[in-house]
Every structure is written in C-alpha cells, then in structure tokens.
Specification:
Shape: elongated
Strand content: 15-25%
Structural class: alpha+beta
C-alpha cells in the first residue's frame, strides 16, 4: 500500500471555541431550540419597523398569553431580544449583536481556514 497525502475538508469555524464562548453559545442555542421561540424570534426580526407588539405575536399561536410570555422571557433572558413597555403593551426587538453570534457560528468561511493535510493509506489500483 502507498501512503498518500490528501486535503481534507476545511473546518466550519475559524478557530475552536473557548470554554466561555461555548457556554454562551449553548445558552443561545437552547433558547432557540424550541419551535415556538424560534418562530417568535423570526416574527420579531421580520416585523415591519424592526419591532413587534406582543399583541401581534400572541394571535399567531394556539397558546395562552402566559405561555407566550414565558417563551418571550426565555428569549429575553438569553439576550436575543429586548422589550419596552408602551402603555399596556410590550414591544419586542431583536438584539443583533447577540443574534449575530449564532449566525457567525454557522456562516461559511469566505476564505479557506488553515488546515493540515491528512495521510491516508490507499489500496493499490
């Protein structure tokens, strides 16, 4: 058999995550891992003007208002959204600096990351 050096796929990230970055990202990923919360985040982010009234969000779900409030609290505690009370309603908006951290985790590299060739034993041809 001959040893051949081939290039393996480039890693998805530029560098491996530090422990603190991994903990922070895991918290964000847990917050959006629920379908209702993911939809809420999407609805808030795509709403005209960049913010959505809670009254606009609750009608889209077959859930009680306290359940929607719980999901919004989880997103807010994770730092993905913020809210402002105006009269009897709360208006929510996305916090781009936090949401972008999630996007950066999965964004393809614009240039190949440095990686090492891998040696494989190939069968004779």
């Amino acid at each position: 058999m001959t040893a051949a050096t081939i290039q393996c796929c480039a890693p998805i990230a530029r560098e491996s995550l530090s422990e603190s970055d991994a903990v922070e990202l895991a918290t964000l990923l847990k917050a959006v891992a629920d379908p209702v919360r993911l939809r809420l985040l999407s609805m808030i982010g795509s709403h005209v003007g960049g913010e959505a009234c809670v009254c606009d969000l609750t009608d889209a779900f077959d859930l009680t208002a306290p359940t929607i409030s719980h999901h919004l609290k989880v997103l807010r505690s994770a730092g993905l959204i913020d809210g402002e009370r105006r009269g009897t309603w709360v208006y929510y908006r996305i916090l781009p600096e936090t949401v972008n951290k999630l996007g950066a985790l999965f964004a393809p590299l614009t240039e190949p990351a440095p990686h090492r060739p891998v040696e494989l034993e190939l069968p004779p041809v």
